[in-house]
Amino acid sequence: MEDRVNEFIKKQIQEGRQAYIVCPLVEESEEIEAKSVLELFEKYQTQIFAEYRVAYIHGKLKQKDKDKIMEDFKNGEIDILISTTVIEVGVNVPNASVMVIQNAERFGLAALHQLRGRVGRGEYQSYCILKYQGRSENIRARMKVMQETNDGFVISEKDLELRGSGEFFGTKQHGIPEFKIANLFEDMGILKAVQGLAIRILEDDPDLIKKENLCLKETMAKKFNGDIEI
What we know:
By secondary structure, the protein is an alpha/beta fold. The chain has helices at 2-14, 37-48, 63-74, 109-116, 137-148, 152-163, 188-204, 214-224, and strands at 18-22, 54-57, 80-83, 96-101, 127-130. α5 packs antiparallel against α6.
C-alpha cells in the first residue's frame, strides 16, 4: 500500500503538481506509535523522494520561517511539504493536488475535513489519502464518513455521534472556538442558518471594515484570541 501511494505521489509531481504529507507528531515518540514530521522528512529526503524537493513545517518553527516555507511551496519551489496540522489555515496553493494524512485515526473528523480542504483549490483533479492504523469498528466508521461526504455539517454530526458530545471536534483544533452548545443535534438548523449569514456578510465585506461589522470583527478577535488572522 505504501509503495503504491509513493508511486502515485511521484506521478503527480512528474505532472507538475505538489503534495502535502500530514503527520500527527513533530518528533518521534516512545509513548505514541505514530508518524512524525522529522522522521518522514529524513526518510523522504534521503531515500524515497531523494530526486524531489522536500521540506517540512510545524508549529514550533519561528513564524518568519513558517511564512518563508509556505511562500516557497506556493511558488512551486517545494514539491513535497511534510507538516503537522499547522497548514489547516494557511496560504492557498492551487497547484497542490495530493494530501496524504498519516495516522488519520488520531485526528478528529473536523480536523480531517479542514485539512483535506487544502487540496482541490485549483483546476486539477485532487486527492486526499487517509492512512490509518487499527481495525476497530469506530475507526472504520469514521474513515467511511470522510469517504462518503464533503459536507462539514454532516461530518460534524457524525463526529458527535461517534465520539460523544464531550469532545465534539476531537482534540482541540486550531481556529475553532470553545462554544457552549446545549444540544448540537437540536441546534444544527440554527448553526446552518448562521453559517449562511456569515457567508453573506463576508461576500459583502471580506475584511469586516464596514461600520455595521466593526463590532463583529472585535468580538471575533477576542473570541479566537489570536488563533486566526482577522
